[in-house]
Design goal:
It is a single chain. The protein has 76 residues and is an alpha+beta fold. Helices cover 32% and strands 29% of the residues. The chain has 3 helices and 4 strands. It has a 4-stranded mixed sheet. The protein is globular, with a radius of gyration of 11 Å.
Length: 76
């Protein structure tokens, strides 16, 4: 299973899973699902976050992570 969590100041604020098979979506990867679950946040919020994911994000997720301004991604 592929998953992701968004951590802000030591607290998990959102979780996501790869849902491309459960929903007819080509972009709903774990990272995208996690960021969608986080909801609309300020740029300042995202600058204090770390995104942890079990697999390397695809190009769409990387672009979204950069757009949000998340400074750290840990792939494990």
């Amino acid at each position: 299973p592929i998953g992701a969590v968004l951590v802000h100041q030591g607290q998990i604020v959102a979780r996501g899973h790869d849902r491309r098979l459960q929903r007819p979506s080509t972009i709903l990867t774990a990272e995208m699902d996690c960021l969608e679950a986080a909801g609309h946040r300020t740029p300042e919020f995202y600058r204090d976050c770390t995104l942890y994911t079990t697999a390397a994000p695809n190009a769409i997720a990387v672009g979204t992570i950069r757009f949000c301004g998340i400074p750290r991604v840990v792939i494990g």
